[in-house]
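Need residues for this backbone.
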């Protein structure tokens, strides 16, 4: 069906629907897997547009009872045969970074800087979810954040809007495929629109204060990308932006989301968020008032709180909302179902998939996501024949590494770090001051339960007992290798200097431990790079690479401050490790950086690109993966522009001694920015381009845009 036919068919369906049928379509309910008949009864009564296959508001924190195709088909049959409008139900579940096979949590997977691999991973994740009849997922989570105290930072792409865009694209394409009307496709949901990552103080569900300029340039781009890639649905955030809860915010959900960004699918609220307008925010008087505000703002479907179901009829009667407003929401839901081909194929099929292949893919992504952040005297990779000691709170963890929002993972896949290392080297001992091992792996991490939703931390520094353990290892005369399994950025404190080598592993999913062992023993390259800043001190928060320069050199991220004007007298300005950072087991030389010194705006406006050439040579002793990155700085503009913005990167594997010539094309869009009203503008003048292996790159060229 083409768009025209879809619209026509949706109107035909709408014309035959009663008010009850319509209200049902804008309602999402939960279901009771233990009592299918009770759920069928609910379907007959409510005629819901969607069912969320999840049993609690904190689904992400627990392994949930799994669902099966047969049960879902019984529910679907009830909808398509026993409800008056016979509209099939959309079954939704949070499939965030894996299903049976868990892949790294989103923040960890972005460290791979390999967005093709991420897209292939979401392809695999989709196949697994479809095999359980799940047709709609609440991913990607695109909340850019500068707040590592916020537990949900691990669910998103980190601090950079460009990485956010890349992540949005891979995830939407992986879930929805090229043809989202095919039965191999699943609906994606870009969430949480918008600004949730700015939760004040990193406290979940908190107020957010975001200027229009910041919103347009930092928080919206990833959503714009998802919309441009055709994302079918969007979830509104729990947060209020500048005092207006998003769930009741017409400017955000209609003027920006639809009118500016061109979104045409439907908007679902977050869990119980409509009710929270009166329960917590003091933005409405009662459930009825909340329902009216949300519908008028642009929320098309109510997730689980029944505010729409209980109140829309009387809101219509009292003329607080119009039938047209309700119809618009209903049409968006049924048009999406028509586009998705749900009417032709309402039932889920028993499908198989190649699990072995998914396991390999998950391992590859976990490996590529590991970041080598320190390697004194090339102590890594480890020698398989030399004994090693092991200690730390995560030495015997396996399952914890699946990460938050792992509802259906196969428990049997996760090995512990010790077991995985044992597959390379059986000469592994518990750390004990008396043995003679020269090297000790100190495996430290945070549990899933302190990451994700409602899991914020006031103190993100490495705890004293962990620092004491590292000191003990060092005092025993051993080299200490930090294997760090933290899903969020943390403050390393003394550990930064104490460790002889550090690999940053995040929460790597089902294959996390195997990936760790493979990188430690050099079977695979540590080719990950940080997609966030590792702060030196909690007091520096927020600290991020693309901040605005300020009025004197107060920032210090780029160690260019005059100490007199440094903003902290008791702390350095630089972070512990910068955005984009990561080492390799070899070293690279980037040279021959060349580009024109001028670029013509008019030519760029006609789609012409501006070329940047350079070469990379592997000057070390083993094959390695280099991740050259190009950053831009607009030197003079009508609004203050960031110190650096990532505009391009690539990932190249180079054998020893080999040189590769590389080229980046940059476009008009890389030079411009959004005004506070959402207009994209490009101003002439001078720009600096920085090329290197992280955001501190000092290989610089100046380009004048005329
Ligand atoms: C979370 C969403 C999630 C939804 C459904 C909410 O509590 O904020 O991210 O998709 O629950 O499980």
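Answer:
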């Amino acid at each position: 069906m083409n768009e025209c036919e879809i619209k026509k068919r949706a109107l035909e369906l709408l014309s035959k629907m009663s008010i009850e049928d319509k209200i049902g379509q804008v309602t999402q309910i939960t279901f009771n897997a233990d009592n299918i008949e009770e759920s069928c009864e609910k379907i007959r009564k409510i005629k819901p547009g969607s069912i969320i296959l999840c049993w609690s508001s904190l689904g992400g924190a627990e392994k949930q009872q799994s669902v099966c195709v047969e049960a879902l088909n019984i529910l679907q049959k009830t909808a398509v045969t026993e409800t008056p409008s016979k509209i099939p139900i959309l079954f939704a579940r949070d499939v965030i970074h894996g299903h049976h096979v868990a892949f790294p949590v989103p923040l960890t997977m972005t460290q791979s800087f390999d967005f093709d691999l991420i897209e292939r991973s979401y392809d695999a994740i989709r196949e697994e979810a479809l095999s359980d009849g799940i047709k709609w997922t609440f991913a990607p989570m695109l909340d850019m954040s500068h707040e590592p105290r916020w537990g949900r930072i691990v669910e998103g792409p980190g601090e950079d809007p460009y990485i956010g865009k890349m992540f949005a694209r891979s995830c939407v394409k992986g879930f929805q495929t090229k043809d989202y009307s095919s039965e191999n496709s699943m609906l994606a949901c870009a969430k949480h629109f918008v600004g949730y990552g700015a939760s004040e103080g990193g406290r979940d569900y908190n107020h957010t204060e975001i200027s229009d300029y910041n919103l347009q340039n930092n928080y919206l781009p990833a959503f714009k990308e998802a919309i441009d890639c055709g994302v079918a649905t969007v979830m509104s955030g729990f947060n209020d932006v500048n005092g207006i809860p998003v769930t009741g915010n017409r400017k955000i959900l209609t003027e920006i989301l639809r009118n500016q960004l061109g979104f045409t699918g439907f908007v679902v609220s977050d869990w119980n968020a409509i009710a929270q307008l009166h329960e917590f925010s003091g933005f409405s008087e009662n459930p009825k008032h909340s329902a009216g505000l949300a519908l008028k703002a642009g929320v098309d479907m109510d997730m689980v709180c029944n505010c729409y179901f209980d109140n829309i009829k009387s809101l219509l009667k009292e003329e607080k909302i119009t039938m047209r407003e309700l119809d618009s929401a209903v049409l968006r839901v049924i048009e999406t179902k028509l586009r998705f081909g749900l009417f032709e194929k309402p039932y889920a099929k028993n499908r198989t998939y190649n699990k072995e292949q998914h396991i390999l893919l998950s391992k590859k992504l976990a490996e590529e996501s590991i970041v080598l952040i320190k390697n004194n005297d090339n102590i890594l990779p480890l020698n398989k024949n030399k004994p090693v000691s092991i200690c730390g709170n995560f030495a015997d963890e396996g399952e914890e590494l699946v990460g938050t929002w792992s509802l259906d993972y196969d428990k049997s896949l996760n090995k512990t770090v010790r077991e995985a290392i044992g597959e390379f080297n059986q000469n592994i001992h518990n750390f004990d001051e008396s043995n003679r091992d020269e090297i000790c792996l100190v495996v430290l991490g945070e549990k899933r339960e302190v990451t994700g939703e409602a899991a914020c931390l006031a103190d993100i520094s490495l705890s004293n007992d962990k620092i004491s353990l590292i000191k003990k290892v060092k005092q025993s005369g051993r080299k200490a290798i930090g294997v760090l399994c933290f899903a969020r950025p943390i403050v390393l404190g003394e550990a930064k200097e104490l460790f002889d080598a550090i690999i940053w592993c995040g929460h790597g999913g089902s294959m996390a431990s195997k990936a760790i062992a493979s990188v430690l023993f050099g079977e695979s390259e540590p080719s990950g790079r940080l997609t966030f800043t590792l702060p030196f001190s909690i007091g520096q928060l927020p600290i991020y690479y693309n901040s605005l320069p300020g009025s004197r050199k107060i920032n210090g991220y780029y160690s260019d401050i005059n100490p007199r004007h440094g903003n902290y007298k008791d702390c350095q300005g630089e972070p512990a490790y910068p955005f984009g950072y990561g080492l390799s087991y070899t070293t690279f030389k980037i040279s021959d950086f060349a580009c024109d010194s001028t670029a013509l705006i008019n030519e760029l406006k006609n789609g012409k690109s501006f070329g940047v050439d350079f070469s990379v040579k592997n000057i070390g002793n083993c094959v390695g993966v280099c991740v050259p990155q190009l950053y831009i700085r607009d030197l003079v503009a009508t609004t203050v522009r960031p110190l650096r913005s990532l505009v391009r990167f690539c990932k190249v594997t180079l054998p020893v001694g080999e040189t590769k010539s590389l080229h980046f094309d940059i476009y008009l869009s890389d030079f411009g920015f959004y005004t506070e009203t959402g207009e994209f503008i490009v101003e002439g003048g001078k720009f600096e381009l920085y090329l290197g292996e992280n955001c501190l790159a000092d290989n610089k060229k100046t380009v004048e845009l005329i």
